[in-house]
Amino acid sequence: MVQEICEELEIIIVALECDKDHTHMFLNVLPTFSPADIMAKIKRVTSKKLREEFPHFQHLPSLWTRSYFVSTAGNVSSETMSQTMTVKVKLLPTKEQTSILRQMSQEYISTINTLVSEMVAEKKSTRKSSKDVFAHLPSAVKNQAIKDAKSVFQKVKKNKYTTIPVLKKPVCIWNNQNYSFDFTHIYLPLMIDGKAKKTPIRALLIDKKNRNFDLLKHKYGKG
């Protein structure tokens, strides 16, 4: 019954554990729904259906004793829930775009490694901004690289400089203010002829019930 309601609300039940007197549910929900709204809907509909099916339940004021939410960050709240979701979208770049993305990804990782090395040598976090970083990347992407490098340095500092990681896997990150999309393309700033130009890249954004598109249009996080 609960599963039917969740399907109606496009809520994915990631895990369900039933005990003799209670149930634990791990739900993956769209940010358009508040936890309170979700639980109220589940309580209301299940109570109604159970009273219809079992008349001896009709005298009970409520068929639910209590409910609470545990966020993915470990905070308990009756109204709010923090969650992290990853939306995977397949890109269909042209050969030229593939080459540019590959070069930018390598440049991004190289920039982070260089910044980390500088911070380790100076034993303090960098004060550089994008204009101080000499890399063939858009300013917004440089800023993200600086942020990531600082994060790596803090871990190195916490471990008392015993291990200095060197990132190898090519990757490039745009924050949520620097990409946009429609039903067929994602628009990213790419380096073309030495300048950052917002470029449409074909992408498979449409899936069953448009779930990916609904998640992406809220634009929380990074791309």
From TrEMBL:
The cross-references to Pfam families, in alphabetical order and at most eight, read: Y1_Tnp
**SMART domains assigned to the protein according to its UniProt record, in alphabetical order:** Y1_Tnp
**Example of a GO biological process term:** DNA transposition
Domain spans labelled Transposase IS200-like: 2-83
Q: Which InterPro entries match?
A: Transposase_17, Transposase_17_sf
- Domain of life (superkingdom): Bacteria
GO terms assigned for molecular function: DNA binding; transposase activity
What protein name does the entry list?
A: Transposase IS200 like
Q: Which organism is it from?
A: Aneurinibacillus thermoaerophilus
